Amino acid sequence: MADDRTFVIVGASLAGAKAAEALRDEGFEGRVVLIGSEQHRPYERPPLTKGYLRGEDDSHKLYVHDEGYYDEHAIELQLGRTATGLDTGARRLTLDDGSTIDYDRLLLATGAEPRVLNLPGATLAGVHYLRSIDDSDALRAQLEQGGRGVVVIGSGWIGCEIAASARQLGNDVTMIAPDKVPLERVLGGEVGGVFRELHRDNGVQLLLGAGVEAIEGSGAAGRVRTSDGSTVDCDLVVVGVGVTPRTALAEAGGLQVDNGVLVDGHLATSSPEVFAVGDVANELHPFYGERIRVEHWANALNQPPVAAKGMLGKDAVFDTLPFFFSDQFDVGMEYAGFARDWDRVVFRGDVNGREFLAFWLKDARVVAGMNLNIWDINETIQALIRSRAQVDAARLADPGVPLESLASTGATSTS
Question: How far apart are CA 45 and CA 43, in angstroms?
Fold first, then answer.
């Protein structure tokens, strides 16, 4: 018997595309509609601040699937369309042209959008944000010939990666942020200090512990005025001060929302026919027992197969540990786990040579770990986190002690 159900996915992103793929892989033969507000077919975002921004990666490498994939798998890809209304009682979605789609199951993969500065001069020409291919193209056009004065506002992952890429293209880069070190909110002062020195060593000027009062210029950004009254001349400004989840559609449908769309371990929302994945999903994570919203590539990749199974009535739980990666200059790193707070940080390896492991400990248990310029170790770090073993800090720091032994047995004392 033919399956006459309609499953709709809002958000033609990596998460949305992988969800559509997973539905077909799970044997769903009904109608699949994938709706995206951009004109580009689904693509991956991490290269937009790295290789693609620098012109090293071709655009074809960004796309999740080949152009013919969606037709071949009977996935209705509706691009340049925005969902504006949601009636969960009627199970009906309204699009920007007033048309409607009735659904049997709905997946929200609406992602997040950059936080916008609210200060004088924020709307001047030459002020850039980076979220999409088009944003990256526009910024590359300004950076690729080098010699430009670039101010990056923000020292999080986006700010650091853009600063690194702009510098690698031969531009004069100044990073301004209120934090004492880059990435302080995620990594803390000790590990953030490693990235501070990395950027300094590569010629990025750092104005840390400083706020931005205004962007000034005659018709276009020409300088940035900081909280102490000093100014930095520039040709362009790039803003990377975080993102906010796109929850307007969920709110319109009466779904529970709090720093994202609230979902359970099956990625189901407060409406049983509606699921959410990716940047917009705030999950009650089974491993941690608390809500976590992760704004990284790994969630967009790994959550959709779980949600697809849930949409099909199959039992699946998303308990994957948070994971992300970054490349800046000659440093590559991977981070796993979740550390809202910690007691101490333990290093293993050569910190000054930027080839080490770092572990964030809470009550002598590893809650997060990072491998920097050391590879094929992250799965072992994740096993150590999952073990919840109390570890001896001295043994954890000792390269001669296999991490596997700490994960399997733990240590009864700490130092």
Answer: 7
